[in-house]
């Protein structure tokens, strides 16, 4: 029987993606309907509710579907929906600003965007085994290229704290990449596609957190933390590093990035970009 931790782990990525992939895009369309004056308030309210009550947005949306769109209630899978909608969302704010003209940042944007796009194809491709196997190969390649691009930005981190933060997020990304690989192996035995959707959503979220770390240490613009719902829950899973760096412009923002409890590598060593997919 599944434990509460198992349930939380399974729901966490979809809860984190419901706001940016479904709710926020709807709110952004309000100006076209004459409701631009309440856009900001709705955006802030949903974010605060999600932070106070993790999973609120998902529950709200599911309740709305059940009540107002009852014919769809039995066929709507939220894990699948958030994953599938990734490719339709404007996620430009998540990527490194064009003000960083270095080729390494441009390459990182292209490769991470490609990874997210391929992951979002899973619900469409999973029904055809041959096509799905090709998609899996593309994902494995995209993961490795993304990690290589992340390592290429390492030279632009000016502090040991920043380099350690990047190393920590890379470890989390690799952990969930391996979890995705193991989930795929299990899928070909038990055909539990929802587990695949959850594992893919985890990778989407971890990609966002990885990009966020690079933005935090390599850009000067203030970060909008409402783009990363449930970030505090993500951070509280392990030991936290000092928040001394987390400020930008005239606003003092304290952001705690996770420090892996098992990390013993020096902050001055270049992170290892290798990744064994284990998809065989």
Automatic annotation (TrEMBL):
- One GO CC annotation, please? cytoplasm
The Programmed cell death protein 10 dimerisation domain sits at 14-68
Instruction: Tell me where in or outside the cell this protein is found.
Output: Cell membrane; Cytoplasm
Keyword Metal-binding set for record: no
What GO MF terms are annotated? protein kinase binding
Q: Which organism is it from?
A: Rotaria socialis
Where it mainly occurs, coarsely classed, is membrane
**UniProt similarity note:** Belongs to the PDCD10 family.
> What keywords would UniProt list here?
Cell membrane, Cytoplasm, Membrane
Which portions of the sequence form the region Disordered? 241-280
The biased composition feature labelled Low complexity covers 244-274
Q: How does it sit in the membrane?
A: Peripheral membrane protein
What is the official name of this protein in its record?
A: Programmed cell death protein 10 dimerisation domain-containing protein
**A GO BP annotation:** regulation of Golgi organization
- List the PANTHER family hit by this protein, alphabetically: PROGRAMMED CELL DEATH PROTEIN 10 (PTHR13250:SF1), TF-1 CELL APOPTOSIS RELATED PROTEIN-15 (PTHR13250)
